[in-house]
């Protein structure tokens, strides 16, 4: 138990008890007579087959409003456990068929109804999560992190060197369980920019060299104007266009970011 598992009360250090270790597994009687308590327990218990059985047996109509929310949260934690197991299986499949010669990769794509590119992404992420991103995988398996969060990190760091990946993972996992996927993605970008500034600067330079403007005619005499450019330049153009639109549209233009 580390320092983060302790608190000070009147100058005395007190160890915090993990709720998962002191919360009993729900029984069939609990499911029938105390459904709200079962749902609440499932939000702190380590995801398992026994917890799944209890949640699956709950009758939604017998839950209070609070119990309903707890049950929803418990389902997310259980889903994370299943996603973690699938990640392990995909990693093993990638190990057995590294170059696709055994056609296991193709069979996996067919079995999961995934496009080949999507299936390959899943395999790549699985390999990362069961190796360099083991701490992330551990949170996924324990139900504290979603598969979406895990894939965001795996995809973003897959081309980075091991030392950078370790630093990025250590930084972003601190707040990850309480973040939405969008918030987590932004946190990952900031961490990569901090720990891999040289590579990110070179990537930005290469991307900026591809800047362009495109126009496309569509129906009803309308058209699209697409601008791909550095973000600071986009902000400048957006400010100018917004100002122009405010003077000329009289509220008829819908602005979106």
Keywords:
single chain, 13 helices
Return the string of H and E elements.
EEHHHHHHHHHHHHEEH
Derived structural class: mainly alpha
Strand order of the largest sheet: 1-2
Largest β-sheet summary: 2 strands, antiparallel
Oligomer: single chain
- How many distinct domains? 3
Helix content: 55-70%
Overall geometric form: globular
Strand content: 5-15%
Mean pLDDT: 88
Radius of gyration: 24 Å
Protein name: 13E12 repeat family protein
InterPro entries: DUF222
The gist of it:
This protein has 13 helices and four strands. It has 257 residues and is mostly helical.
What does this structure look like?
- It holds the Pfam family DUF222.
- Residues 70-229 form the DUF222 domain.
- This is 13E12 repeat family protein.
- By secondary structure, this protein is mainly alpha-helical.
- It has 3 domains: 17-77, no CATH class; 79-206, no CATH class; 212-248, no CATH class.
- Helices cover 61% and strands 8% of the residues.
- It has helices at 19-22, 28-33, 35-42, 49-57, 65-96, 104-111, 116-129, 134-141, 147-157, 162-172, 181-195, 197-208, 231-248; strands at residues 6-9, 12-15, 212-217, 223-228.
- The mean pLDDT is 88.
Compile the SSE list and pairings.
Elements: E1 6-9, E2 12-15, H1 19-22, H2 28-33, H3 35-42, H4 49-57, H5 65-96, H6 104-111, H7 116-129, H8 134-141, H9 147-157, H10 162-172, H11 181-195, H12 197-208, E3 212-217, E4 223-228, H13 231-248
Antiparallel strand pairs: 1-2, 3-4
Helix pairs in contact: 3-5, 5-7, 5-8, 6-7, 7-9, 9-11, 10-11, 11-12
């Amino acid at each position: 138990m580390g320092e983060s598992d302790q608190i000070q009360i009147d100058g005395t250090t007190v160890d915090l008890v993990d709720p998962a270790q002191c919360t009993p597994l729900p029984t069939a009687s609990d499911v029938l007579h105390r459904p709200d308590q079962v749902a609440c327990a499932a939000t702190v218990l380590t995801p398992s087959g026994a917890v799944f059985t209890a949640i699956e047996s709950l009758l939604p109509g017998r839950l209070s409003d609070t119990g309903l929310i707890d049950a929803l949260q418990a389902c997310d934690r259980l889903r994370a456990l299943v996603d973690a197991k699938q990640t392990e299986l995909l990693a093993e499949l990638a190990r057995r068929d590294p170059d696709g010669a055994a056609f296991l990769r193709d069979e996996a794509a067919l079995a999961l109804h995934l496009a080949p590119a999507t299936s390959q992404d899943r395999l790549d992420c699985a390999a990362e999560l069961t190796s360099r991103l083991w701490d992330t995988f551990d949170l996924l398996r324990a139900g504290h992190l979603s598969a979406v969060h895990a894939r965001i990190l795996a995809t973003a760091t897959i081309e980075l060197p091991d030392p950078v990946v370790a630093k990025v993972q250590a930084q972003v996992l601190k707040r990850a369980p309480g973040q939405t996927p969008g918030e987590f993605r932004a946190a990952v970008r900031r961490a990569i920019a901090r720990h891999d500034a040289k590579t990110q600067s070179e990537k930005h330079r290469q991307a900026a060299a591809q800047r362009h403007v495109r126009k496309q005619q569509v129906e009803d005499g309308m058209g699209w104007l697409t601008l791909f450019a550095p973000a600071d330049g986009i902000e400048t153009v957006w400010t100018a266009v917004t100002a122009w639109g405010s003077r000329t549209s009289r509220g008829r233009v819908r602005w979106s970011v």
